[in-house]
Amino acid sequence: MTIKNKVVVITGASSGIGEATAKLLADKGAKIVLGARREERLKELADEIKSNGGQVVYHVTDVVKPEDSKQLVHLAKDTFGSVDAIFLNAGIMPNSSLSELKTDEWNSMVDVNIKGVLNGIAAVLPTFTSQKSGHIITTSSVAGLKAYPGGAVYGATKWAVRDLMEVLRIESAQEGTNIRTATIYPAAINTELLETITDTNMAEGMTAMYEQYGITPDRVANVVAFALDQPEDTNINEFTIGPTSQPW
Ligand code: NDP
Fold first, then answer.
1. What average pLDDT does the segment 102-120 reach?
2. Is the CB of residue 114 below 6 angstroms from any atom belonging to ligand 1?
3. Any residues with CB less than 8 A from the CB of 113 and at least 6 apart, and which?
4. Which of 11, 43, 88, 165 shows its CA 20 to 30 Å from the CA of 118?
5. Which atom of ligand 1 is nearest to the CA of 194?
6. Catalytic residue list
7. SS in 3 state form for the chain?
8. Taking the complete model, does pTM exceed 0.90, yes or no?
9. Closest residue (by CA) to atom 2 of ligand 1?
10. For the segment 169-194, what is each residue's pLDDT rounded down to a tens digit?
11. Residue 121 contacts by C-beta under 8 Å, 6 or more apart in sequence?
């Protein structure tokens, strides 16, 4: 099955990369299930997709809560009869130097960026295992590949996603469950992500960098679509994507 008619659950769908991906996949005929915390944004996006002829539902979802992720997957099955893919994309990036000791933000990043992904995997894995098919796609980051000052905890969470996705891929192949995985590593993409930074100097520095280099989130959506569109026997494991002009 190509993208058309696939049932795709997307977390972090209310803005940025998730929103762009929802629009693109809906245009290509996928049935979309949107999850995020901001209901108004989800409703607006769902209305836009429907007005363009797409099929979409949404559920207010905090990925930190395992039950919310389960309900999101249930909604997909109840509405469309199945779930074929999940894009675990919700994330936050309140970068700061470790010496600032913003420990609440460290914990929030671990909760959203790691536990949120694990909750999504746990919500969908029983279905994918029993149907012996399914596609799990995550948004890691170039911060999951390269260390940089201010990004210690954010990078650690994205590094963790890389590891658990690769192990998921290996275990699925060993267990013969035919589950595909794709981990995407974006560099500077212009979204609302920098709004999660509370350290003023860090926010200014990163904003300047994004203003210089950033590209639009539909570029990442194209990668998600590419991964989804491969034949069932083909797995796009990892994909790094960023601005041509960005040096790192
Ligand atoms: P945005 O801030 O635009 O989007 C983040 C999304 O995550 C929003 O939809 C937000 O929705 C959602 N979200 C945050 N916390 C939660 C939560 N607890 N439960 C459910 N949803 C949540 O940024 P991006 O589109 O850039 O971010 C998407 C992913 O891409 C993130 O994982 C980010 O780390 C990653 N990334 C982004 C890069 C970039 O340069 N932009 C580079 C590399 C990786 P809501 O607030 O409504 O819940």
1. 98
2. no
3. 91, 92, 154, 157, 158, 160, 161
4. 43
5. 2
6. 154
7. CCCCCCEEEEECCCCHHHHHHHHHHHHCCCEEEEEECCHHHHHHHHHHHHHCCCEEEEEECCCCCHHHHHHHHHHHHHHHCCCCEEEECCCCCCCCCHHHCCHHHHHHHHHHHHHHHHHHHHHHHHHHHHHCCEEEEEECCHHHCCCCCCCHHHHHHHHHHHHHHHHHHHHHHHHCCCEEEEEEEECCECCCHHHHCCCHHHHHHHHHHHHHHCECCHHHHHHHHHHHCCCCCCCCCEEEECCCCCCC
8. yes
9. 193
10. 999 999 999 999 999 999 999 999 99
11. 88, 136, 164, 168
* Amino acid (1-letter code) at residue 72: L
Alpha-carbon distance of 72 to 67, in angstroms, equals 9
Instruction: Indicate if the alpha-carbon torsion angle 226, 229, 231, 235 is positive or negative.
Output: positive
Mean pLDDT of 100-109: 98
Mean pLDDT of the chain: 97
State residue 74's pLDDT score.
Answer: 98
Task: Answer whether 12 contacts ligand 1 (Cβ < 6 A).
Answer: yes
Pocket of ligand 1 contains residue 62 by CB under 6 Å? yes
Q: What residue's CA is closest to ligand 1, atom 34?
A: 91
**What six digits make up the tokens of 16?**
């940025």
Domain architecture of the chain: domains with CATH = 7-238 (3.40.50.720)
Q: What number does the ligand 1 atom closest to the CA of 41 have?
A: 47
Q: How many residues does the chain have?
A: 248
Chain center to CA of 105: 20
